[in-house]
UniProtKB/TrEMBL annotation:
InterPro entries: ClpP/crotonase-like_dom_sf, Enoyl-CoA_hydra/iso, Enoyl-CoA_hydra_C, Enoyl-CoA_Hydratase/Isomerase. The keyword Manganese does not apply. GO terms for molecular function: isomerase activity. Keywords: Isomerase. One of its GO terms (biological process) is isoprenoid catabolic process. PANTHER family: ENOYL-COA HYDRATASE, POLYKETIDE BIOSYNTHESIS ENOYL-COA HYDRATASE PKSH-RELATED. Belongs to the enoyl-CoA hydratase/isomerase family. This is Enoyl-CoA hydratase/isomerase family protein. Gene3D superfamilies: 2-enoyl-CoA Hydratase, Chain A, domain 1 (3.90.226.10), Lyase 2-enoyl-coa Hydratase, Chain A, domain 2 (1.10.12.10). It holds the Pfam family ECH_1. It comes from Solimonas terrae.
Length: 274
């Protein structure tokens, strides 16, 4: 799967990995409506494709994402609420939340590579990844309040990622910080200082992922994302049903047989390396 270089998101599929590159480098990859739609379309396209094991998010031109395109947001639909109560600015803002939830709920492992500006909506995108790597000099922050705006669609995902106490401090002050502090906060998982180091991290992570069964990975992610959203007994009841379905499925017998026979399972045949 490949897309034209003129798209706001460049899409490349290689050996079980879907690479999504935010492609507005002239705007530090600030997100506009077309970019949101292209990200969602790419996620929808592979949602049920178990041959795609991971989605890697990166930005073109040395920046991950500088947030939302403020100019396009401020002029959305002429700026006035419609007579029927529909507010075009609210609709544009809500679209950010829809995109973030779609990325968060993708069955595949989602990896964010944070470089340069990781601000506003880009900060939110990092928060919905399963694994995030950051350059030590990447700049993180939610500057919305310094622009007279709330980080409306981003804040809930920040709370989920780093907890309410830290989210309150960062959201309410608009403070910025670098990659190593992002690591200490638990926002990201590893730091890198150069491309070779990043590629080694990425290769090791993808190689480990390829040892895991695709459907079991997707089901595990579903269980994890239910925690805190539903009553715990309901989560555990549903997880038990998912476990039983897995036992009766095709992956568990193969995985257990491979373990007993001291061989790699069938799904580990693809390296998945970039």
């Amino acid at each position: 799967m490949d897309k034209d270089r003129d798209s706001t998101v460049c899409v490349r599929s290689e050996r079980g990995v879907l690479h999504l590159t935010l492609n507005r480098p002239e705007a530090r990859n600030a997100m506009n409506a077309p970019m949101l739609a292209e990200i969602e379309h790419a996620i929808d396209t592979v949602r049920d494709d178990r041959a795609v094991r991971a989605i890697v998010l990166r930005g073109a031109g040395g920046h991950f994402c500088a947030g939302g395109d403020l100019k396009s947001m401020m002029t959305a639909g002429g700026g006035d609420a419609a007579a029927n109560g529909a507010d075009p600015i609210a609709a544009v803002n809500r679209a950010f939340g829809t995109m973030l939830r779609k990325v968060a709920q993708a069955p595949q492992l989602v990896i964010a590579i944070c470089e340069g500006a990781v601000l506003g909506g880009g900060f939110g995108l990092a928060c919905v990844s399963d694994i995030a790597f950051t350059h030590v000099d990447a700049k993180f922050g939610m500057p919305e309040t310094t622009r007279g705006l709330p980080p409306a669609q981003i804040a809930p995902f920040v709370v989920e990622r780093i907890g309410l106490t830290q989210a309150r401090r960062l959201c309410l002050t608009g403070a910025s910080f670098r990659g190593e502090q992002a690591l200490r906060l638990g926002l990201v998982h590893e730091c890198f200082s150069g491309e070779d180091e990043l590629q080694a991290m990425l290769a090791a992570t993808l190689a480990q992922l390829m040892q895991c069964a695709p459907l079991a990975t997707a089901v595990t992610k579903q269980i994890l994302l239910e925690v805190g959203r539903r009553d715990m007994d309901a989560v555990l009841d549903d997880a038990a049903q998912k476990f039983a379905a897995s036992v009766r499925g095709s992956e568990a017998p193969e995985g257990i047989a491979a373990f007993l026979q001291k061989r790699a399972p069938r799904w580990a045949g693809a390296s998945g390396l970039p």
